[in-house]
Every structure is written in C-alpha cells, then in structure tokens.
Write a structure and sequence with these properties.
The chain has helices at 29-55, 65-75, and strands spanning 2-7, 10-17, 20-26. The protein is of the alpha+beta class.
Amino acid sequence: MATIVKRNGSWRAMVRRKGHHHYATFDTKAEAERWAYSVESSLLSAEVLTSSPARVRDVASVPSMVELFKRYKQTVSSYK
C-alpha cells in the first residue's frame, strides 16, 4: 500500500510491498497518487505473473471421476 506525505512543500509517495521499496517526490498530491497507483499495479501484476503458473493445473493432468473411483476400489475397498 502506498503512503503519501507532504514534506517541505512537495508530496512524497512511498510504495513498499514484499521487499520492494519505491520512493518519488511530486509537486501535487494527485501526481503522487497517480504514480503510487501505477507502481502498485505493476508490482501486483508482476506477482500474479510469477505465481500463476504454479497455481494453474493442466486439465489433462487432473484425473477423471471414473479414474478416481477405480483407484478407490483398488486401494481402499479391497480392505473393507
């Protein structure tokens, strides 16, 4: 999350997220907010891009219900 502070007549925007620290100084608060929003969104999109392949599973690798029931029948039901 961004922090925007008035300092010595100018506006300082600080964005800190998961070890990334970004700072910039602007003449207006609106410019600082705009910059902070763009930096935050770029950091979030970078997180999504790096973490999404690990979370997405290939549909072909997911077993069907028929396969699951067959596996259950062979491994669990045989002991009941």
